[in-house]
Amino acid sequence: PDKKEILAESRELVEANARVLCVCAELAEGELKAKTDKVYDAVRYMTPTTAAGATQADKKISALAGDLKIALSKGKDRALLQADDIIKDLTAAIAERNSYSK
Fold it and tell me: Which of helix, strand or coil describes residue 43?
C-alpha cells in the first residue's frame, strides 16, 4: 500500500478510536470520568501517521477502547475496577503510539 492509503487507514483508526472513547467518556462517572476524558482527548488529537508501528498501536488502542466501553456499560464495582486497569493500559498504548509520531 502507498503512503496515502496508510495515512487514510491511520486517520480512520484514530477517528474510530475517538468515537468509542467519546462513548466511554459519556458512560464514565466520578474519578473514572476524569481519567476517561483525558484518554479521549489524547486520542482525539492524535495525528494520523504512516509509521509502521503506529498502526499496531492504533489497533491495540481500538481493542482496549472496546474493552473499556464494555466494562463501563456493566457499571458494577468489579467492572469499574477493571475499567481503571484498562485506562492504565490505554495510557501506555497511547504513549507507545505517540512515540511513532514524533
Answer: helix
**45 contacts 88 by C-beta, under 8 angstroms:** no
Taking only the tens place, the pLDDT of each residue in 22-74 is 999 999 999 999 999 999 999 999 999 999 899 999 999 999 999 999 999 99
Q: Which has the closest alpha carbon to 24: 10, 13, 34?
A: 34
CB contact set of 89 (below 8 Å; sequence gap of 6+) = 64
CA-based torsion, 32, 59, 53, 89: positive or negative? positive
Task: Provide φ and ψ at 78, rounded to 5°.
Answer: -65, -40
